[in-house]
Amino acid sequence: MKETARVYRTPEARFADLPGYSFESRTVEIGDERLGPLRVHFVDEGERDAPVVLMLHGEPTWSYLYRKMIPVFVAAGFRAIAPDLVGFGRSDKPVEQSDYSFEGHVRWMRSLVSKLDLRDVTLFGQDWGGPIGLAVLAAEPERFHRAVAANTMLHTVEANLAGRTTWANHSVGDGEVRVSEMLLAWLVQAQRDTDFRASAAIEGATVRPIAPEVVAAYDAPFPEERAKKGMRQFPALIPMTTFDAGAAINRATWSVLERFERPFLTLFGDGDPATAGWETIFQERIPGAQGQRHETLEGAGHFLQEDRGEDVAERVVRFMRDTG
């Protein structure tokens, strides 16, 4: 399977000697009716028959974000799988923004889960990894034993979200919506910034200083503009009206989660205004969240995996052991 005119593949040399990321590279081919076969890259560490931790990243990162967590899971006896979403990391990157949709990301990740025939899965979803992963869970709940929502959200733009989240995104009646200025600023930046870089978002949404070589690793998958189309498109896929296709996907996901009685945990950082408030919504609406040891971690920004990755993984290990 080779790069085509419609799909960009980042040169492998870009991923040489990245600090802390020495995992074996694995790929699987999934089908797409319009684009043809796509290569999806993933990290898969630990024993094949061990319980699975499936870690899904969001915007604008890749599996490198989980490099601190993967060894903790493996040492605890679990199988750690961290894919690169299509358009990110070592996965193939369609070169047109219109090739990316919320539904497409869900379909692609569902294909990966099916191809690998993953079962007894603990989902860990952060940022867009939450809505995408939870939609896969909603479609195939029999594959998932438990889930962790970490600095993520599930936008439906409904009026009952008013006052519940730091970044507002809800209807106010009479065909009007209220959207946080910061949320709109992020969407506009992704479309207009002539030098849109993943590393700028990482540095701006973490609490602890990041070494220059780590900053560079986040930019490694995106050496030129045609590699950045998925990264540019994600903010535009955030549902901002009740009519949005993404809002419909999230409503369908909620309809399953509100009956989900398997263990559900929230782990949020105390320095992330983008998702603040969503942890309480998850805890209130999901039956499996009742009685769990939810936590807000001090000294953790939006990318809590970067700020406190080992600590986050240890809490997930405890959650998995507590819930058998």
Would you mind describing this structure in some detail?
- The protein is built from ten helices and twelve strands.
- It is of the alpha/beta class and 324 residues long.
- The protein has a single domain (7-322), classed as Rossmann fold, CATH 3.40.50.
- The protein has an eight-stranded mixed sheet with strand order 2-3-5-4-7-8-11-12, with helices on both faces. Strands 1-6 form a two-stranded antiparallel sheet. The protein has a two-stranded antiparallel sheet with strand order 9-10.
- Helix 1 (70-75) links the parallel strand 4 (52-56) and strand 5 (79-83).
- Helix 2 crosses helix 3, helix 3 crosses helix 8 (245-257) and helix 5 crosses helix 6.
- The N and C termini lie far apart (41 Å).
What would a concise description of this structure say?
The chain has 324 residues and is of the alpha/beta class. The protein has one domain (7-322): 3-Layer(aba) Sandwich (Rossmann fold).
List keywords for this structure.
single chain, 324 residues, alpha/beta, Rossmann fold, 8-stranded mixed sheet, two-stranded antiparallel sheet, 20% strand
